[in-house]
Amino acid sequence: MDTDLFVAWFEETARLVREERDRLTRLDAAIGDADHGTNLDRGLTEVCKALADSAPESAAEVLTTAGTTLIRRVGGASGPLYGSVFRQMGKALLTPVTLAGFSAAFEAGVVAVERLGKAALGDKTMVDALAPASRALALAVRDGVSVQEALDQAARAAAEGAKATIPMQARKGRASYLGERSIGHEDPGAASAVLFMTALATVAG
Amino acid sequence: MDTDLFVAWFEETARLVREERDRLTRLDAAIGDADHGTNLDRGLTEVCKALADSAPESAAEVLTTAGTTLIRRVGGASGPLYGSVFRQMGKALLTPVTLAGFSAAFEAGVVAVERLGKAALGDKTMVDALAPASRALALAVRDGVSVQEALDQAARAAAEGAKATIPMQARKGRASYLGERSIGHEDPGAASAVLFMTALATVAG
Amino acid sequence: MKKLINTAESVVEDALNGMAAAHPSLRIRDHVVYRAQGPRRGKVGLVSGGGSGHEPLHVGFVGHGMLDAACAGEIFTSPVPDPIIEATLGVDGGAGVLHIVKNYTGDVLNFEMAAELVEGVEVASVLVDDDVAVQDSLYTAGRRGTGATLFVEKIAGALAEEGAPLARVAAVAQEVDERSRSFGIALTSCTTPSAGKPTFDLPETEVELGIGIHGEPGRARVPLAPARELAEVAMEAVHRDQPLRGDLLVMVNGMGGTPLMELYVVFAEVAAFIKGKGARVTRSLVGNYVTSLDMQGFSVSVCLLDDALTRLWDAPVETPALRWGR
Amino acid sequence: MKKLINTAESVVEDALNGMAAAHPSLRIRDHVVYRAQGPRRGKVGLVSGGGSGHEPLHVGFVGHGMLDAACAGEIFTSPVPDPIIEATLGVDGGAGVLHIVKNYTGDVLNFEMAAELVEGVEVASVLVDDDVAVQDSLYTAGRRGTGATLFVEKIAGALAEEGAPLARVAAVAQEVDERSRSFGIALTSCTTPSAGKPTFDLPETEVELGIGIHGEPGRARVPLAPARELAEVAMEAVHRDQPLRGDLLVMVNGMGGTPLMELYVVFAEVAAFIKGKGARVTRSLVGNYVTSLDMQGFSVSVCLLDDALTRLWDAPVETPALRWGR
Ligand SMILES: Nc1ncnc2c1ncn2[C@@H]1O[C@H](COP(=O)(O)OP(=O)(O)O)[C@@H](O)[C@H]1O
Ligand SMILES: Nc1ncnc2c1ncn2[C@@H]1O[C@H](COP(=O)(O)OP(=O)(O)O)[C@@H](O)[C@H]1O
Ligand SMILES: [Mg+2]
Ligand SMILES: [Mg+2]
Ligand SMILES: [Mg+2]
Ligand SMILES: [Mg+2]
């Protein structure tokens, strides 16, 4: 897992988010304020620019740059939350990057967002997609599967986790204001987390 | 033509205006501000109340009360304009009321509104219905037809006059702001003038 | 139709009750809004009014430095003479009363009748007719009075507050009207409570140019365009009629349903246009001041200032909707 | 969607340019609105901000007696930390800076990050969370900050202007929040420029109860009812949470697309409700102050006053959207 792969990860995520922007915004319209797609699209465009400009020399640098850019450019709840995921990953990632090292860094990122957002599994947030993805990665490392296989499993776990947010009642973020009316809708942040994980699996292929 | 007939005139007009209120307002929406039906409905309801309360003893008194009430209760352009018609009629009407006397008083009323509104035939206003009605009355007096026949002819003349406002470009009132876009719509004030004349023919029958 | 009202019949009365409850500085009786403390001896009284539905005009402009009384008619329907007479008598401090009348047949007739019937008070009248969308010709009722009414009421009000005599107050009102031009554009129609549906239908892709403040359709319909272009259309119309020059008082006014953010977007374009013509915005207002119920859209009003008018504009004013200097 | 904008992307920037053109008293840089004259030595600086689309909140409340700076995020999107840091450094007069933060995850996180990263300036924060439509429980993100934000900014701003130290300014801000409750009702959804269509669909015959200020759907949908009943629903919710008593500051606030006339209709009902509970409206505001783009609807905010708070409310304020006493 080299530096280019990490750059490609964000480029592919940016492409996917652009493609899915309106769906993300629609999900946010249902239980939030209709800006999640726009927010992430703006943020990832900036991330790609920042990566192009700074020519990072390590995977850790890619992650830190991406995280800082998200914090500095997105705003809203998802900006600091996603930003913290990647900044924390960047801090935790050891060189050279192995699947095990990536898995550990990813888990550190997920913990960072749980702490910052005070969110736990089942609160109907991005954590519900990110935490299962992290668990899938850890299991893949334990089982010694290929990088590609591991990332595919992580993407699948994220997708299942996002789907599982549909019947949940939100306890964090704007959706929590709706009380029971938040039930029956997929969490936009969980849906965008799936895009991150799918993008990673794609570029690794 | 006795006092009761004049009271009945306003009662029947009030009934007709109530019935046709939405049509009048729709006509006013097209080239004005969508209140002519409401304005006249409010005004004639008040006229009926005033007539019931004051128990007028002459046709002239009925007309003066009606005119004053319209001025005092309607507002807008049509309040002072219609009010002046009937106040002037009240002033001009001689007792006992003959058809010839009525025709002369009616003409005085029409002149009053022309003067007050600075409106002439063809300006696309109530004058385009009232003036032909007055002319029809005068001709009927000359020809010596019955009261009923005379009032029927006046009502028909008013209706034709109102219809003739459709192709006109307005030169007075709000409709004049529309310039050429006022063409193709019947003037609401002309339409309500028809109701006055129709009501009179009805109650005389 | 979705409105925060009790009934279509009671909306004017209910809103006036709300004003009375919110503003102890006002006294409201029989659809006339007065300053609570009554007339000041020797001060010219200012009375305006017209159909309701243009709030804060006129009722929100009663107070120190502006109107002494405002008569509220039914929605879009000029008030009848009686309350205008009442208001005129009620605000007279012995120095006479100025009627500020927007140029609409109904307003003109009812104020004229009132002025004729008032006894014992000297009355002067000024007609406001600033809307360049209407040709001032034999073939129309003349220009409509729209946004500049606020300018007239503020500036004449300031002069009256200083104790100027009726003739001078009337003259400055007249002067402000002559120096002012307006043009309005609607994105949507308004809905009167009694009609219950939009006065006109406007497709999602079109706007009405040259609207008044009563939901009257405008002079023409054109495709919806960016704020920059709409601002230019309005400003070109104003500029064509009275070239922009020197110091300007500029109002970008919302029609009632337009959020402040959009009005600022328009103001930026208006200011750029003015700069391009070599004139200067030295005073400005941005907000919903002269409205047409829930209509979306804006109007822009421009007044050519001089030092005297600027001073009067800056003078203290304390009304529900316009307040500075005290 | 029909809006007076140039492009969805540029709307915040364009509106800020309009504000800069309209208000020489402001200086605007990088989406932060400052008082033009800069910080005053020894005065606590007040910084607020949040997503745009709530105008005049916060940008219209920068000026004497209120905020020193406001950070404007994208529409409904909390500003990022950088401009908050800039604003904090820019307004510091040596006495520290108070962050006034509406309680939304995004606002809280971004202001927190900014506060952590600021160096050399003492920063205190107050969270505004007045919206009784949201249960303050473990199962939500806590109450939203809505209308009471204006109360907090005005009253804390007045105390800061008097030269009070940061701890006292923060304490009064906190006190105002604790004494304030709000509830909102929407007649229509809003439309964000980028989404281009209404955030939620609301049938002609229904209203949303307990809405926030971001076009979030409310807690429940009920049939459209007369203003009296809607005002009662809102006031009951406020009263249930904090019984009405004594002197009250009451704001009937429009959501952006509601005409003033309708807000006064609502105010009359709110005032009647309060009288019925034996409390008194001693200060009030009626208008579009804390909005949600073009949404139609209203919110009502109530603050329990005492003499000290009343005095601070009455203190001079001179901002684009709130101005009295100078
Ligand atoms: N406290 C929180 N912890 C974790 N994730 C959160 C939290 N609050 C919100 N989120 C995530 O952020 C998403 C919303 O992001 P976005 O719409 O960009 O921000 P905003 O809510 O400020 O408009 C939600 O769908 C949810 O997944
Ligand atoms: N100057 C005028 N002279 C004669 N009639 C007029 C004049 N102005 C308007 N009208 C009549 O008044 C009618 C409008 O009445 P109404 O809608 O009640 O008043 P407003 O125009 O004030 O809303 C017009 O249709 C026209 O017939
Ligand atoms: Mg969102
Ligand atoms: Mg009309
Ligand atoms: Mg009318
Ligand atoms: Mg947001």
Q: What's the arrangement of secondary structure elements?
A:
The complex is a heterotetramer, with 2 copies of chain A (205 residues) and 2 copies of chain C (326 residues).
Chain A: H1 3-31, H2 36-54, H3 59-73, H4 78-92, H5 99-117, H6 127-143, H7 147-164, H8 188-204
Helix pairs in contact in A: 1-2, 1-3, 1-8, 2-3, 3-4, 4-5, 5-6, 6-7, 6-8, 7-8
Chain C: H1 11-22, E1 26-29, E2 32-35, E3 45-52, E4 69-75, H2 81-91, E5 97-102, H3 105-117, E6 123-128, H4 148-161, H5 166-178, E7 180-186, E8 206-209, E9 220-223, H6 227-241, E10 247-254, H7 260-276, E11 280-287, E12 297-304, H8 307-314, E13 317-318, E14 323-324
Parallel strand pairs in C: 3-4, 3-5, 5-6, 10-11
Antiparallel strand pairs in C: 1-2, 2-4, 7-8, 7-12, 8-9, 10-12, 13-14
Helix pairs in contact in C: 2-3, 4-5, 6-7
The complex binds adenosine-5'-diphosphate (2 copies) and magnesium ion (4 copies).
One magnesium ion (MG) binds next to loops of chain B.
Q: Number of helix segments of chain C?
A: 8
Number of E strands of chain C: 14
Could you say what the CATH architecture of the largest domain in chain C is? 3-Layer(aba) Sandwich
The residue fraction in helices of chain A comes out at: over 70%
Low-confidence stretches of chain A: none
* CATH hierarchy, class of chain A: Mainly Alpha
Q: Let me know the number of strands of chain A.
A: 0
The total tally of domains of chain A equals 1
- Overall average residue pLDDT of chain A: 97
Low-confidence stretches of chain C: none
Largest interface: C-D, 64 and 64 residues
Query: Rough shape of chain C?
Result: globular
Largest sheet of chain A: none
Helix content of chain C: 25-40%
Rounded mean pLDDT of chain C is: 96
Subunit organisation of the chains: heterotetramer
Structural class of chain A: mainly alpha
- What does the overall shape of chain A look like? globular
* CATH topology term of the largest domain in chain C: Rossmann fold
